[in-house]
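Protein modeling request. Please complete all fields; requests missing the sequence field cannot be processed.
Requester role: graduate student
Desired output: 3D structure, token encoding
Chains: 1
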Amino acid sequence: MKNLAGIGKKSRSDLSMVLEQHAGPITPKIVAETLNISTQESGRLLSRWNKSGWMHRVKRGVYIPASLSSTSITPVIEEPFLIADAIYGPGYIGGFSAVKHWDLSEQIIETVTYYTRKMVRIRHPTHGGVKFKLKTIAEHKHFGLKPIWIGSHKIYVSDPTKTIVDIFDDPKVVGGMAIVQDIFGEYFESEYYDFELLVQYVHKINNKSIFKRLGFLLDTCFPIGQAELSLLRENISEGYSIFDPSTTPKQTISKWRLKTSRSWKALYDRKK
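Delivered output (272 residues):
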């Protein structure tokens, strides 16, 4: 950690008051409201605390308290979900981070995935040694969320079904359809599986490629009734969509109006 410099009795008292009332990321607005001062003054105060080593600046306008137990000069982010929400909100924890939250995969993923309503220039930033993956979404996709509390802070994570629909919407977020298949398999066998809710969410997302990908995967890899498959087929478009954007499609599946790789086509043919 940085060498801690003296900040004076009044400044130390102000810092203690802020930290006692606010766990997680600290912003000029939080300091201003806590100490009843202007945001200009709170910004200068945060800057002094940062220079003295009592705060770490992770991004312009966002700070975290220094960890007194850390020997590293790199700030220690104990709650990266809070950092993601503080910097990139409004939005929600999704992708692999939500998959892990709902225990739908045993993979160890350290990157925090955050679906944001903001337009961001850097999609894979690092803050305080933590890697983040950002995906900008339209307003109509901001639904199907569950609140989680970290201390006194409430943030949102996609619910299990929305997590699944999101990765069918953009399989590249988790690394392609082979990984989506594994995650969906855990979801399919879990208490969270809800076919009707899946269909409802896909309609709200308004991407017919999801119906195609979901239908193909259920048809090929999972025990599902013909009524469910027929419902999915009723909602697909005539044009061909790419099943797995992480692969090079060289084959087609006319039933599901999909372009897919040879390996997925071979798997489908074996199941017919």
